[in-house]
Protein 1
Amino acid sequence: MADRRYTKTHEWVTVEGKTVTVGITDFAQSQLGDVVFLELPSPGRKLALRESFGVVESVKAASDLYAPVAGRISAVNEKLTAKPELVNSDPYGEGWILKLELAGDLPADLLDETAYKKVTEEAAH
Amino acid sequence: MVDFGGWELPQQYTSIRDEHLAVRKVAGLFDISHMGRLVVEGSGAEAYLQHLMTNDLAPLRPGHAIYTLMCKEDGGVIDDLVIYRETGNRFLVVVNAANHDKDIAWMREHLVKGVTLEDHTLDLSLIAFQGPSAHALLPRGSSETDDIPYFGFRPGKVAGVEGLISRTGYTGEDGFELFVDSRHVAKVWDAILGEGKSAGVLPAGLGARDATRLEAALRLYGNDMDETVNPYEAGLGWTVKLGKGEFVGREALAAVKDEGPKRTLIGFKTEPGNIPRHGAAVSYDGRRVGAVTSGTHSFFLGHPIALAMVEVPSFRVGEKIAVEVRGREAAAEVVKLPFYRGSARSVVAPAKS
């Protein structure tokens, strides 16, 4: 998925038309450790850019999730209720978290793979 | 990797879930060399340790180990430790990594003529092979361990390497803690994992260690007790032998026992997703009654579990309380301790709720 983009807060997005799929990065899941629960909003809710919309609870810590784009939630990954570990095992695939109908343009500060890699290398130190 | 008392330790090798379940169902291998290993030796060694420790070492025969606390004069817990009696005058003392320097300073301060205290933490490694199948899965070239009782130990070979084989642990499961010369410990580590792999043996990190010890309701120093907590509050009054004679903290502890502790440790569970974290408020009827000391998600039991220090009078099993999770109150239910009783032949810390 060449057009995957990232945020400094370790979310990823892919864009198909107006639909934006959101998840957390492989780096984020490895830092969190085993995910045991996700507190997620319901479809229909509008999210502002960088609004906190949920929590990932891992054995180690509870971490907030931030909206990487503004938009209305069109779908939430229901599979994560029963199998939160999908976030660990397949963060860019079956572990997607929600889909948004994009409001306005994509934010300009989304990172490409190279730029995001730099962020993770700095965070690892 | 996380910093743990100055040691770099893995939270998990692969996954906390897999490692935790391996320990409960087959066996897991922990590197616990961060724990301090001290040797106390000399004609006055027993009397010296009797003076510092709450438990009674007099009945301890060579080849046996005992769980004990070391307290201040005011009864606050300096550390919890395991003492192995090698001979009449030689004891191996295993202390918590975070307390290593503090313990040595305290023990040196009280050192008496005819007793030596040596630190062997770096030259003597310690690994723990824990699980219901640990005994059956010791690698080739290991001594017979059938007749080593729980909390017993003896010199022997594991994978051809000489060491001390001890039937102790921190998981609630049967298994061994192996003291091996640091130059040869890698051979033992590799043999246990190599030969156990097909049976499901995994190396296990701190995450699995914390979850298994918490399920077994084994206290963690720094979380469930510290110098502001006395043994009775921590539910460890059974390690305090007031009748054994004089020891540091005896007077204060006798008074606590007499009056009864003002706080006590309880166990409770919550709904999946609501993991109580250390320090979170515990309340009843809208009133704060205490705080969480340890909490995690139990992959084995399928829900979060926690210990909390609460005011007395305490709660009965089945009572509903509330705990702060992510800034909100979550429902919790008081449960019996330990949360899970594994294959260990007895329990190290029989807890009262």
Protein 2
Amino acid sequence: MHCPDCESRLIDYASHELPEQERAAVAGHLATCSGCALEYCRLQADLEGIVEAHAEAPRADVYRQLRQEVAREFGPSRWERARALLLRPVPMYGAVLASLVPVVLWVLTVARSSPVFVEPERAPATPPSATLTDYDATEPPPGHRGVL
Amino acid sequence: MSDRRSADEDLLQATRNGDLRAFDVLYVRYERRLYGYIRRMVADRDLAEDLLQDVLLTVIRDRSYDPARGRFAAWLFTVARNRCLAQRRHDAVREDDRARTPPRLSTSPESQLARAQQVRTAMAGLTESQQQLLLLKQVGELTYRELAQIHGVAEGTIKSRLHAATRAFRQRLAETGEG
């Protein structure tokens, strides 16, 4: 492909409108011809400039209002939402936890109804020291007591 | 339905089925391009925002759209174009000079960039049909075939018109840059 042939196809090439065979030929020429490659880059920049100069976002209110309108018109009703919640598949860990609830309740019930185990009093480690229980220091010794 | 690569048509169907996440994806995908296009067609910002809502609700409500007959983007911009032209006609009846007045340039920070100003100035120098073609091709990303369907002409005609519009735009852009 020669430069004039390439240049006449650059707009279609940039627009992705060339048949595959022609597209490959133009790409091959651009890879070897710096003049056409530069022209293509300029064309691309100019065309992208159109997009950049005209891309503009609306205010956030627009999105909010539009979303509300779509939700009101197309969103599911309360009944449909509740139904979907009920029909929602239960994950496996949820099923396992749910099946464990009766077991836990049974264990708690059994533990409460069984007699309480009381630990017996343990003997002291050291024997008690000998003590006098019938001794009164205010009384005279037995030898001085009256016989009668 | 949060996949960026989901087809527009699937997102549209999901939105109709009440999936608001699909609507979010669709909105983000077209928000700037569609609003930018409408903004170019009508001067008033509030009116452009009303039209944006109107166009999006129309395409979501209208179940006559058949994906087999064309891409969603082409249909969306066709609806936007028709709605904007109708608005222009309506405005022209009320204010005769409105249709001839070029739309005001945006005052957003982006528009203050010199390059964007040059592009807009160059675009303003083109004929109305040339501007339409370039905007629908570049901003709307429509194909030659889709443009031909919208304008009701042959694909070859669109191709030659688009080539002429592109050459004219680039020439004016070069002149604006030099000036």
